[in-house]
Amino acid sequence: METWEERKAEDGRLFYLNTKSNETSWIRPEDNKDPKTNPTEWEESITQSGKIYYINQRTSETSWEIPAEVQEWKNKVSALNLQEKLIQENSDAEECEEGQIPDEFLDKDGNPTRKEEIKQAYVQMFQEAGVTSTWKWEDFHRIMRDDPRFNMMKNIAPKKQIFQEYAQMLKRKDREDAKKKKQVARENFMKMLDSSGILRAESKYYKTAHFFQGDPRWRILEEKEREELFQDFLDELERRDREKQRQLRKQQMQSLRKLLDDREDIDHTMKWGIIQRLLAEHPLFKAIDKLDQLTVFSEYVLDTEKQVSEAKRLEERTKARKRREAFRELLEDLVKTGEINAASHWRPIVQKIKDDPRYLNLVGQPGSSPQELYSDIIEREKEKIKDHKEALSDSLLNFQITPTTTYEDILEHSREALDSIPDNLRVIVFRVLYDEAMIDLKDKERKTQKELNKYDDYLKSNANIASNSTYTEFENEIKEKFVNLSDTQLRDIFNKFVEKLKDEEASEIEPGEIKNKKRDRKEKDHKKHKHDEKHKHKHRSSRSPSHKKHKHKHKYQD
């Protein structure tokens, strides 16, 4: 078990303590020492600015350059790391199934060879010899040719190949380390310039270089690279200065705008010259560029005008809303008094209210016009009529409205339904319900008459019907063709038709003359009807619009 532990002294230096004997040492004893632990007296440290330096734990000597013994130890650690990597790769390969072993590690019988073990042994020799990326094969050969392990391979070619692979690996690592070191050096150089506090965007390299020549962070870079980084830093300073100026300008302009907003003796209607005189001695105003002053004032005027305009627009909008509300109240008053109902027309209403201020204040104003608001009221009243009419109709399910039906008949049959309707709407609801019933009745009569005419044509055109025919013989055919007529109607008309045929045969009239006369009379009536309809259409077309309007009054009008 390891008995030495690493401790830190008050001055920050490391020392080692033997936990059994309490013996101390600045240098780690060799017992049980990890080969990757620094065996030298030098310790690597980093300054606050990020610069790496080395300090001797025994003598307290410092150095910016890496000591030779530290470099040698680092080379050995790198070699050990590489060896561990190769061993791990070999271990992973051994974990594969036998069928997955690469061919180069199999002998002619298909068994694994010692080739990889031999390769690892050569790598270990490279590490022990301290091979670096600059070595040639001849250098290694001269040093290690007497080592018994050197002849594990008889042919020189595979030995050289292993050496070349190892050397290439070291070169790649050296390039990566150099790149990282260069990047750290560049970063430390920029930090050095930034922390100096003596540089300005207009500083010159040749005038300020002597301030930094004693700093290792300056000397570690080549002259050309120093000049390039120096200029990059000045560019960054210039960018910072521009950003500071931009922020300062923005802040000053915002402060001036607040000053204009807060001053009670300043408003947006004033001329620029007056504003200049009022603020001439104000330190904030004097600190701002004249063009920026004018820009702030212009924005102040535009923004204030927008605010005033918006306030006026909102005020006018409020007034317009109040005017509409007042006019609606006027219309509602007329609804309550019964002067406006679902059957009312705009013209007589406007004649009645034309001198009312609530009407006059709304005429010509933006938004809904008086007539549009009136139309909204009428539509609402029509919906009320519709609802009341449907409720009254539901109460009359077993009541048939005929042309002789009166308001009193409805009242007697559905008093409760009528009582639920406002007084000023009852008669109107009745008229609407009555008119719709009459329209339905006329439509039904028209359809029935049309069906009767078709039935009459059928009887006259059917050659199978004779004076001795009975309804029963044709009943099924007739009922199938004329489903909208009742059986009584069909039977009575059929029997009357047969009786006429009998009369025809009994009289001196030639057979078929009754049918022909009736057919001729029907054709004559049909032609006369078409002539009357055509004449009526022409007569309607010649009427004036006012006549049409008078003719087609609202069906709800009393």
Automatic annotation (TrEMBL):
Residues 1-31, 36-69 form the WW domain. GO terms for biological process: mRNA cis splicing, via spliceosome. Residues 115-169, 182-236, 319-380 form the FF domain. InterPro entries: FF_domain, FF_domain_sf, Prp40-like, WW_dom, WW_dom_sf. PROSITE patterns: FF, WW_DOMAIN_1, WW_DOMAIN_2. GO terms for molecular function: RNA binding. Residues 24-45, 505-558 are annotated as: Disordered. Residues 516-558 have a biased composition (Basic residues). It comes from the Eukaryota. GO terms for cellular component: U1 snRNP; U2-type prespliceosome. Pfam families: FF, WW. This is Uncharacterized protein. It comes from Blepharisma stoltei.
